[in-house]
């Protein structure tokens, strides 16, 4: 199926600047916390290469300036490189979120292109603990490819995912010792395999979902962010991206998320939308914990 062409009048209606291209559910790993339950049995969905190209064309026309390729392991997608290259060709910033288990030579070349950057997750300085999380002996490969990315001068961001503050601090110290400068720390998000309950809710979100950003899934489904995919607001295989992003469903979804998150995390007398506008009140749980990943920021979409 081909993505519907966007009309000229609709192209400028969306204020969205950043998109997650959540292109696959396939991954070599099977992490215990994976927010979308990706793994070896996952697939690449129904979006063709041409669909992703058309989506990117629409996104650029609508004012999007940055995308992140995420999944699943995007380097396992048969058209991942072409999608990233198309986005770079449109002048977009492109962050590739990879587990860094195996990076083919062509990917290393692409990642050295101006506008490209790399991000990965890291779970512990201890190989045993890291591998317990990924359920594969992946620590050595990921660490070696972090070192290689630094040597090649590729802009790199590492998200440490741990509910143990001491372990996270050890991992951060190790990463800083090998030269990683952009490091974020986040807890395990209650989605996918990271969820204790099968039915997701908004309490694990930050409240910024859909605010200048949106996620496109492997079947073309659009959601306010990569964590809130059960709140589908449209499908780019059925409607133009700009119309979806500026539509009533997006407005309703983001309002519902903000309302729920503000109620759950803010003080009763706090100003409206406190969490999305953090920091507004030091008593409130800071939304800094959720920075779901834009290349210009220190966000951590994988977590
Ligand atoms: S968290 Fe990332 S590396 Fe782990 S299974 Fe999910 S997509 Fe793969």
Automatic annotation (TrEMBL):
The keyword Oxidoreductase is annotated on this UniProt entry: no
Coiled-coil positions: none
Cited SUPFAM superfamilies: Radical SAM enzymes
Keyword vocabulary terms for this entry: Iron, Iron-sulfur, Metal-binding, S-adenosyl-L-methionine
S-adenosyl-L-methionine among keywords: yes
Family matches, as CDD domains: Radical_SAM (cd01335)
InterPro entries: 4Fe4S-binding_SPASM_dom, Aldolase_TIM, Radical_SAM_PqqE_MftC-like, rSAM, rSAM_sf
Cited Gene3D superfamilies: Aldolase class I (3.20.20.70)
Stretches assigned to the Radical SAM core domain: 13-219
Protein's name in the database: Radical SAM protein
Native organism: Streptomyces carpaticus
